[in-house]
Write a structure and sequence with these properties.
By secondary structure, the protein is mostly helical. It folds into three domains: 2-30 and 252-303 and 316-411, no CATH class; 73-205, no CATH class; 465-665, Hypothetical protein af1432 (Orthogonal Bundle), CATH 1.10.3210. 62% of the residues lie in helices and 5% in strands. The chain has 29 helices and eight strands. The strands form three sheets. The chain has a four-stranded mixed beta sheet. A hairpin with a 5-residue loop joins strand 4 (138-142) and strand 5. Helix 13 packs antiparallel against helix 14 (332-346) and helix 27 crosses helix 28 (621-637). The longest helix has 28 residues, at 2-29. The protein is elongated and about 160 Å long. The two termini are 82 Å apart. The mean pLDDT is 87.
């Protein structure tokens, strides 16, 4: 008892941990609200509710406007260059030293030409190109005495033009320049003075303002349906900038985060309580809870990452993927509840949450309504089409409400995104396959495949044990009708019924339905040994099922269809043949376990009734009714259903169905009168 309690406590901790991790992951994925959470474009209509200024804030100029205004202010600015006389004097002295062996005339000629060039000034060629590009004709030159004056750019030289001017001054200059490589002594002596230039630029920009006015608290910025003009765009952009400043400089960001955490915990707790109270079968399985949490996290992650790292609209995301997957493996109510919780969580981060909630709730409802049982690929495609139509109709309705305009004025881009989202729903078929393999679940698609009696497995079963095969067909039909009557999973029961006796195919000769001519080899054995051979068909069935990769949910029907009942024929025969001797009950008792679901309980009842129906001496309304009542009541008295969530009302409905169906199977036929001669 203590061990059981501890195990249950550990499982509870893990279940709570799954939802706690889900909440933490969602909170971590959420984009921080350090910006204005609206998507808008200049020239497009505003699709959200009215926006008023929550506080006073300045209207900032756009980067383009700032750049243009700065360009206009600095267009007439004349840059400052320093005139370096020390460089020219140094180079001339070097030339004089170099030419000291030359004629005095040559020395004077070269010196005069270099002095003339340096007095005008030599500047880098890149600056000359930039002057031409800027259409600049003058610069400010600062001389060593700190006197500044304007200089015509045309009077300045580059190293190339200075060289050309010197060699063209006299015929002999070309040879002298080449002989002494005098071009090496042409150095720039007019250099850009960044310190002075930037200082004067800052003076010009001192009166420049990056704002164009103020928006006062409570002032309307824009209302739904209005066009985002350039002025309104500037206000909305400025509001976003101010939000970012305030969030980084105050506690507002922290308070918003705390609010998000509270709401996320509330929504996830509601889902947890729903599963705990109304879906105990899901709650009891850690893998089931993990799958639901994982699907919610997948949808939230796709949405949050799209908002955080891209400018795409979130409506291309297949939000209906979640209800499809949950519905396939669980039920409609759980699918819709999970979808609603996910949508409510996402309203905390999406633009226009009112529109988002309406669209997604409508799409989720239409998805669940069309996914009662996914048994065909075409059903998924049809559901995707219905979801697209639902999106389209709902969106048009919301646009009419918001704008009150004609259909021609509707913004149609979201419709394309709805089509993409609906198309992506089709990939759930692939996802279902992987979930089955990873989580060990069974979808209705797999169940339909398993019920194919023309499969190689079923054909071999029919060939080896024809009587047992016919018995399973009859049981599957009866069990399906009984399951429908009490709202159980009819497809699961049908599949389990087809496989519950496959163990008999290993030794079909031991079972009366497969014996021709009434030859029963078990009658030659003692009762305990014969009982063990009969009981072995359960273990044999499990072995065969695992060998052929039959899902665990179907194997449960094999292990539970006899529960812990006894092989009554051999047990009673032993008692009758050995008066006063107490039999070893273990030799005559099936290993179990007992049925623990509605579906396995139905199979036990139907299997016993169908087998017993072949032993009736006569088939009348009274005998059939009595047989059904006695068979099922004895199972109840034996405690076979005490672990199954099935009510007395359900049992009575199953009895009623079995009585009706068995009567229809064994009804008397009209006798054809002979023709009188």
């Amino acid at each position: 008892m203590k061990s059981s309690f501890n195990k249950k406590s550990v499982q509870t901790v893990f279940k709570v941990l799954i939802f706690a991790v889900l909440a933490a992951a969602v909170i971590q994925l959420f984009p921080r609200t350090d910006k204005l959470n609206f998507h808008f474009e200049e020239g497009k209509p505003w699709s959200y509710d009215i926006i008023t200024a929550p506080f006073d804030f300045p209207v900032f100029k756009s980067e383009k406007d700032i750049a243009n205004e700065k360009y206009r202010l600095l267009h007439d600015f004349v840059p400052y260059f320093s005139f370096d006389t020390a460089t020219s004097q140094l180079q001339i002295r070097k030339i004089q030293t170099l030419l000291e062996n030359e004629d005095i005339y040559i020395q004077q000629l070269v010196t005069d030409e270099f002095i003339k060039v340096y007095e005008n000034g030599i500047v880098e060629s890149d600056y000359v190109k930039q002057f031409a590009k800027d259409k600049r004709s003058e610069i400010n030159c600062i001389y060593p005495n700190r006197i500044s004056k304007r200089v015509d750019i045309n009077n300045l030289y580059t190293q190339k033009t200075a060289y050309e001017a010197i060699i063209s001054s006299a015929p002999q200059m070309y040879s002298i320049m080449n002989d002494y490589n005098l071009n090496l002594y042409l150095k720039e002596n007019v250099k850009y003075d960044s310190l002075v230039s930037e200082s004067y630029k800052n003076e010009l920009l001192k009166g420049f303002s990056q704002t164009t006015g103020m928006v006062l608290r409570g002032e309307k910025i824009i209302d739904r349906g209005e066009i985002v003009t350039a002025q309104i765009y500037a206000k909305l952009r400025s509001l976003g900038i101010e939000y970012e400043k305030r969030n980084t400089s105050t506690q507002q960001s922290m308070m918003e985060t705390i609010g998000e955490i509270i709401l996320i915990l509330v929504f996830i707790t509601l889902l947890f309580l729903y599963i705990y109270v109304f879906r105990p079968r899901i709650y009891d399985s850690l893998s089931n809870l993990f799958l639901i949490a994982l699907m919610i996290l997948l949808i939230v992650a796709m949405t949050a990452l799209t908002i955080r790292f891209s400018t795409f609209s979130i409506y291309f995301i297949p939000f209906t993927l979640l209800p499809v997957i949950i519905r396939v493996f669980f039920d409609s109510r759980t699918a819709l509840f999970s979808h609603l919780v996910t949508v409510l969580i996402l309203t905390l981060i999406v633009d226009n949450p009112f529109q988002f909630v309406i669209l997604q709730i409508a799409a989720g409802m239409i998805t669940v309504s069309n996914m009662k049982d996914l048994t065909q690929r075409s059903q998924l495609a049809r559901t995707a089409l219905y979801v697209l139509i639902c999106y389209l109709v709902t969106y048009i309705g919301l646009e009419f409400i918001a704008k009150g305009q004609s259909i021609a004025n509707i913004h149609w881009l979201p419709v394309i995104l709805f089509a993409i989202s609906s198309f992506l729903m089709l990939f759930s078929y692939i996802l279902i396959y992987f979930i089955e393999k990873i989580f060990g679940l069974v979808s209705s698609i797999t169940l339909v495949e398993l019920t194919n009696i023309n499969s190689d497995f079923m054909i071999k079963f029919a060939e080896k044990a024809p009587g047992s095969f016919q018995h399973t067909l009859q049981v599957s039909n009866l069990a399906t009708e009984a399951a429908k009557a009490i709202n159980a999973n009819a497809l699961l029961v049908r599949t389990g019924a087809l496989y519950h006796d496959i163990g008999k195919s290993l030794h079909p000769e031991y079972f009366t339905e497969n014996q021709a001519g009434g030859n029963n080899p078990l009658l030659k054995l003692d009762f305990a040994q014969a009982a063990k051979l009969i009981i072995a068909h359960v273990a044999d069935g499990v072995q065969i099922a695992k060998k052929h990769h039959i899902p665990e949910q179907i194997i449960k029907f094999i292990t539970t269809h006899h529960g812990t009942s006894k092989t009554k024929y051999f047990y009673n025969s032993f008692i009758n043949a050995n008066a006063g001797v107490k039999p070893n009950d273990a030799d005559f008792t099936y290993p179990g376990p007992r049925p623990n679901t509605k579906e396995t309980a139905i199979l036990m009842m139907v299997d016993a009734v169908e087998a017993r129906s072949h032993s009736l001496q006569e088939y009348t309304v009274e005998s059939i009714d009595e047989m059904v009542e006695d068979m099922i009541d004895s199972q109840i008295a034996d405690g076979q259903f005490k672990e199954a969530p099935i009510s007395f009302l359900d049992v009575e409905k199953v009895k009623s169905i079995l009585k009706e169906k068995v009567k229809s199977i064994y009804h008397t036929r009209i006798t054809y009168p002979p023709i009188k001669e």
